[in-house]
């Protein structure tokens, strides 16, 4: 997604640029999680980068701080792990 407040017309070009960027980063051995949070645009690459131990730790931490599942539901955790209310 484009930065908050950006015109809707930027949505498609921004998403295409983000996908090209993520593919280039991955092709060169990097990760999409290298410097800031992962959102909906980068989630497809994130799925292949994180391991099950990390996923379990993240799910436990999210459950501790967000038991109702209201913070960013469905973005980083599969629904089966309680990421949606």
Helix and strand layout, with pairings?
Layout: H1 11-27, H2 43-49, H3 52-65
Domains, number:
2
Question: Strand pairing plus helix content: what structural class?
Answer: mainly alpha
Termini Cα gap = 23 Å
Using only C-alpha atoms, the radius of gyration works out to 14 Å
How helix-rich are the residues, as a percent range?
40-55%
Continuous helix count:
3
Spans of at least 5 consecutive residues whose pLDDT stays below 50 are none
Number of strands: 0
Shape, per Cα inertia axes: flat
Largest sheet: none
Quote the average pLDDT: 76
Question: What is the chain-wise order of helices and strands?
Answer: HHH
Portion of residues in beta strands equals under 5%
Task: Name the features.
3 helices; 85 residues; mainly alpha; 2 domains; flat
Characterization of this structure:
This protein has two domains: 8-49, no CATH class; 51-85, no CATH class. The protein is built from three helices and no strands. The longest helix is centred in the first third of the chain and has 17 residues, at 11-27. The protein has 85 residues and is mainly alpha-helical.
In short:
This protein has three helices and no strands.
């Amino acid at each position: 997604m484009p930065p908050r407040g950006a015109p809707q017309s930027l949505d498609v070009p921004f998403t295409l640029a983000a996908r090209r960027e993520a593919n280039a980063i991955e092709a060169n051995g990097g990760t999409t999680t290298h410097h800031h949070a992962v959102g909906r645009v980068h989630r497809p690459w994130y799925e292949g980068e994180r391991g099950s131990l990390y996923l379990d730790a993240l799910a436990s931490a999210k459950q501790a701080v967000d038991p109702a599942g209201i913070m960013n539901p469905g973005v980083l955790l599969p629904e089966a792990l309680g990421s949606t209310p």
